[in-house]
Amino acid sequence: MDMIATPPAHPADPATIAVLETIETRLRWLSSWTIHNANHLRDSRDGLKVGGHQASCASITAIMTALYFGALRPNDKVAVKPHAGPVLHAIHYMLGQQSQDALERYRGMGGAQSYPSRTKDSIPVDFSTGSVGLGVAITAFASLIQDYLIAHGEMAEADAGRMIALMGDAELDEGNIYECLIEAYKHDIRNCWWIVDYNRQSLDSTTADRMFRRFDDIFETCGWRVETLKHGKKQREVFAQAGGQAIADWIDACPNAEFAALTYQGGAAWRARLNADLAGQSETLALIAAQDDAALAALMTNLGGHCIATLLEAFARCDDDVPTLFIAYTVKGYGLPFAGHKDNHSGLMNPGQIAQLRGDLGIVEGEEWAPYGGLGDNAAASARAVVEASALAQAATAKPAQAVAVPECLPVPDGAELSTQAAFGRILLDLAKSGHPLADRIVTTSPDVTVSTNLGAFVNQRGLFRRQELKDVFSAARIPTAQKWAGHGAGQHIELGIAENNLFLMLAALGLAAPLFGTRLMPIGTVYDPFIARGLDALNYACYQDARFLLVATPSGLTLGPEGGAHQSINSPLIGIGQPGLTYFEPAFADELALIMRWGFEHMQADDGGSVYLRLTTRAIAQIERADDGWQDDALRGGYWLKAPSGDVDIAIVFTGAVTPEVLEAAALLADDVPGLGLLMVTSPDLLHRGWSARHAGRWTGAGASSHADTLLGALAPHAKLVTIIDGAPSTLSWLGSVRGMRVSPLGTDRFGQTGDLPDLFRAYRLDAEAIVDAVAELCLGPVD
């Protein structure tokens, strides 16, 4: 064990404490029973263990009781430790906001989810959790977004809530915690609490004793207040008696693993060990002798995280906006038969053990689901009154955020040659200058690649967001610079360090502004396309909870040639296709991009919408003149015929994005031999694949309808042939052959590139016009020797 905390500043109300202790035992029981029912009573059709983490729930019930029914305010938002999901469901069950049916189907279809979920659970969930550490870090970014809204006049200071994370101590091993901590320090966040269930046990082991005082040092260095709640009230009372300090010193010196083992062994083991280690200290031994085995075990495990009084006093001491880390010492499995056992992470009480616990709590068999079972009428009434008077019970239903108006069309940048990345920057700049309401709701962010992803002009126009004014020293000194970035409360760009994980957590927090704070923001985040993978877990986390944002990834593919393989993305189109809640586009022309961006701003707000991913490039390509707007509807469905097939031709080139010049060059070379060659421009492999998959699945549900891919390829003969090409994984487009049973010659990038210019790279990786011509010839004439 580590250190003695500072004693509480003031006592808590004994009557309140007694009622909250009663509620805590109910939460421990209901969470345990919910898990027991799923594993031992409910029919199992597949024979698999359901699980549910009874020990992890038991270690945090006192913390959640003190927080939810003692300290929580109406505007506070909480991210709950993933393995404490059953406790959260039990809280809402006691509030009457969760059904018994959902608890009985815990971890089953349609039942309470394994981990708290904004989109899958029926109870209110502020932040989804599940992937360890992400639910903690997002609260820091949410606190920053709250300050952004306050600074922009979208929220009153008095309405600010605390962004609170309940976390297991094993989550402190996650690197994203410290990446976030650094960013939070830079932005001087406030109104953020992280409460650690410090049970010092994870799945495989106990926490290393070397972590003594390290977490305190790290967080204090980053400007956080640290409240260490090691000892409960009973322990502190004993420590104050003659001989008590020796027990306190012994606890501080006891290794975490030995403390856990003694907890599991119980009172007799505690007595034997203390008598041996403290032999000769008569006053101390007298204190030990005054306790029977059960009382001694209760005393030694009376840690701060299990003491309602200690928790309430600590929360009350921190009633300000200073970011605070609470390290609440607990016992994993507290109050359960396997408390302290190193294997209890996935442990489950057997029927005999749950029956013993039921009896100890005075719950009548058959009344296990009664919210206040085992309590007398007066105790039940008192507990119910506290529950019903809690901030959680009184929280008002959030008002739907108002829609943000989107222009009828976005201006298409002019220029004979443009890259999609440059076009993106100019579209945003035009919006920033326009004064349109949409521009005022756009918030941009980037992990230290603002300039190289073409956000610089928008930032020049709209400024950096800072709670405290940040002057542009270079401009003030009249030093020539393209970036004139002053920081102030009205700024609309949130500058981040290079950690991509923070980018996606920031986008998640920005994208939840509507449901969390009642104001819709239109977040745009930019990143180098290959480095999406560095934050992929956080991207998935953002999409899972239905955060809405526009992700602009650029440069992409081989087109950042001189940078080499580490900067040349290959599989990101497959991420775009495979990620639920994210729609991927890869435009080639500026007018496509303007059309898609406008669609994206609408899609980010739609009830059935989601986030959007644009894969853009730095390669400038010649723009084309359009005869009319007839292509636009098809482009927003995923693709259109840039040149429709004609005559009796039975072959087409299917392509997307940066390889368009090579396709047009190859088509010119093939014009005499294949005069009716079709050129199918794919703007979204994702939408095409999604529509085709839905059509295929619909065959079995009676809801089948022709997909857009079917319609497009229907312009060809049934057994036509396709050459597909993309600056990315060839499987992004090669599946199109399955739509109508067509032969395919897929071109793309399937290995890490080297440095080089585009002609050399495209030749080496067979993305050039010659490779396309060869692929057409092979399909038409057979293999070329």
From TrEMBL:
It holds the Pfam family PDH_E1_M. This is Pyruvate dehydrogenase E1 component. Keywords: Oxidoreductase, Pyruvate, Thiamine pyrophosphate. It comes from Sphingomonas glacialis. The keyword Oxidoreductase applies. It catalyses: N(6)-[(R)-lipoyl]-L-lysyl-[protein] + pyruvate + H(+) = N(6)-[(R)-S(8)-acetyldihydrolipoyl]-L-lysyl-[protein] + CO2. Residues 418-623 form the Transketolase-like pyrimidine-binding domain. Component of the pyruvate dehydrogenase (PDH) complex, that catalyzes the overall conversion of pyruvate to acetyl-CoA and CO(2). The keyword Nucleotidyltransferase does not apply. Its cofactor is Mg(2+); thiamine diphosphate. It comes from the Bacteria. Belongs to the transketolase family.
